[in-house]
Amino acid sequence: MSTFKAIVVDKADSGQVVRLTDFDEKDLMDGNVTVAVEYSTLNYKDGLALTGKSPVVRRFPMIAGIDFAGTVESSTHPAWKAGDKVILNGWGLGETHLGAYAHKARVKGDWLVRLPAGISARDAMAIGTAGYTAMLSVMAIERAGIVPARGSVVVTGAAGGVGSVAIALLAKLGYTVVAATGRPAEADYLKGLGAAEIIERKELTGTPRPLAKERWAGGIDAVGSTTLANVLSMTRYGGAVAACGLAGGMDLPTSVAPFILRGVSLIGIDSVMCPLPLRQEAWRRLATDLDRGKIAAMTSEIGLADVIAAGARIIAGEVRGRIVVKIR
């Protein structure tokens, strides 16, 4: 056994303590696959865990990080062998199971997805859980019949990780994208991703009406609360909205009016416990439906030593696009 670097979240009398420290491999949790982690990423949920702004971490001490890409070191699981390239998103990683911000992870083989051909470990984490969630959201509105010919699709939290990837995906698939952002200075960035129209967040933060003027056929919402309520009230008859985030809050101050008077569908997106076949389909689609050049343009890279500070910045709304964490 050996020690390696890890970002560990622990409890103290003064509250939560987060530090980059040495971790002993013998203290890894049970699992039938050990992975040499190569890259992780910084998602909004990671920021919540690192700052303690939300009770993401459910056991202590905890290695933070909710997703990784790497190479199998050893396995007793029948699907995996040493040398396989794998991805893991969710399943309680960084919450109840020791996570990704470490040189090694020991996990259940049933949690892993094979790295698609043509995608490197770094590419996969440039996409990360944010991009995987965006793909699940796109797939959900497609299943609800929201095709490009139906009309525009609004994306809230547009300059964030989920929003940025959602815009790039929707634009490549032929949708007209309306990007809602609280950072109007990012208009050129959002248009570069494929947004056809930029609206300011304040258009969606007023007191929601039961029904407002119909504006879009569908939406992907990473904000929740009043923003989601307004998006629903402005969705056209028979439209659908995928809800995948809570940056604005967990409440939803809406009425039944959009659902029973316009037939609007609200679709919940869960990336953590999502069944394996849907995960595999999402990653297959990400390998083919996402403009890799746009992902490169929205991505920056940091090392493990930079993660704690970056977690505070993402919660403060100071991060746009994607941050890849180089583990080794």
Record keyword descriptors for this entry.
alpha/beta, 9 helices, Rossmann fold, six-stranded parallel sheet, seven-stranded mixed sheet, Quinone Oxidoreductase, Chain A, domain 1, 2 domains, globular, single chain, 328 residues, 28% strand
Topology, element by element:
Elements lengths: L2 E10 L2 E10 L8 E9 L2 H8 L10 E2 L3 E9 L9 E5 L14 E4 L5 E2 L6 H23 L9 E3 L5 H12 L4 E5 L5 H7 L3 E4 L15 E6 L3 H9 L1 E9 L13 H5 L3 E4 L7 H14 L2 H7 E5 L3 H9 L6 E5 L2
Parallel strand pairs: 9-10, 9-12, 10-11, 12-13, 13-14, 15-16
Antiparallel strand pairs: 1-2, 1-4, 3-5, 3-7, 3-16, 5-6, 6-8
Description:
This protein is an alpha/beta fold and 328 residues long. The chain folds into two domains: 3-115 and 294-326, Quinone Oxidoreductase, Chain A, domain 1; 129-268, NAD(P)-binding Rossmann-like Domain (Rossmann fold). The chain has nine helices and 16 strands. It has helices at residues 44-51, 121-143, 161-172, 187-193, 225-233, 257-261, 276-289, 292-298, 307-315, and strands at 3-12, 15-24, 33-41, 62-63, 67-75, 85-89, 104-107, 113-114, 153-155, 177-181, 197-200, 216-221, 235-243, 265-268, 299-303, 322-326. The strands form three sheets. Strands 3, 5, 6, 7, 8, 15 and 16 form a seven-stranded mixed beta sheet that branches. Strands 11-10-9-12-13-14 form a six-stranded parallel beta sheet, with helices on both faces. The radius of gyration is 20 Å and the shape is globular. The model has no long low-confidence stretch (mean pLDDT 96).
